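Recall the central idea of this unit: under ordinary conditions, the amino acid sequence of a chain determines the structure it adopts. In this exercise we apply that idea directly, starting from the sequence alone.
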Amino acid sequence: MTPATCFFVILPAIYLLQCIWLSRGLSKIICHAKHDLPACDEPAFSIIIAARNEEANIGTCLDRIFAQTAIECVREIIVVDDRSTDSTPQILADLSRVHSKLRIVKIDEVTAGISPKKNAVSQGVSESRGEFLVLTDADCRVPPKWIEAIAASFAPDIGMVQGISLYWDDGTVPSWLMGLQAVDFLSHGIVAAAGIGAGLPINSNANNFAFRKAAFAEAGGYGDAGSVISGDDDLLMQRIWKSRKWKLAFMADHESAVVTAPSKTLAEVINQRKRWASKTVHYHWSQALFLGLIFLFYIQTLALIFFAPFSLTALIAAIGSLIVKLSGELFFMIDGTRIFAKQNLRQWIVPASMVQLFTVIYAVFGGVFGKFTWKDQRFGRKV
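Accordingly, the structure predicted from this sequence is:
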């Protein structure tokens, strides 16, 4: 084997091993979904929702929460009104007169040195009175047994619980865009579950996220990650994991999945992925190394595809890399779609895998070095 051939083989081999590792982690995810609901002698859960200009969503979101089967476990529902300029404040005021558990925290100005979302969540945490804090977003819809599943997942040694998040299809997004982003979004959840199962939590999602208030305090809250625009979920998860005081759990019961709206256009998808990618440079070195090797494999594969028309060696290496990428991803995605009851998305795995080569590379460079939009504001990766 020539040195050039050896070079082309190393990254695909590592990538395949990573996919196998993820598949094994997926089989070990901690799931307490079938356990009985603990007795709620005292309501111990505080639900925190950061909302900015969510007049179209906040009412529906809260209606789903008020209808929880385990609402007796909920001490309070805290909505942090983050400088809304639409009718969100009025909607919240009307609802608070009807629902005694609803508390409103109003933010008029963002604290210097911390990103808007983390500032809002931190304010909610400081105002909370529950032992367990549950996060979702104002544009999400939670299932009836959501709190029940979360409560059943908090064993005594569990400090954080992550659940699955999915897109709903309301028919307003072209079918090809809906399919591609739905399976891509699902893949993030599958990787999150696999990482927790394997003992190296990689990513998280604040749509369906809960932690002990004590774990948040012991991790120092967001700490030096507070200025990062994104990452109110996975950067916090990694801080709790690094403390080594608590275990992490993943709710694998697909009936506890939270759904949210998909992006309407390809430009919105790319902007969202840039925002997500912007936080990865602030990951713990072990997670950064794991994802960095994947990123290098993607770059190498895309480069080989570019040079394939001019070189037989590049052509063979490109075909081999694509086979490795597809085989490895199918290896754990098939299991993931079964666990989360989304077998209908399997038809999109292969095309999404090909598209990812371009979108991931663009999103990483754009998120780390460029700008992205969030809540109609332009940001870089730090405030």
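The two ends are 49 Å apart (CA to CA).
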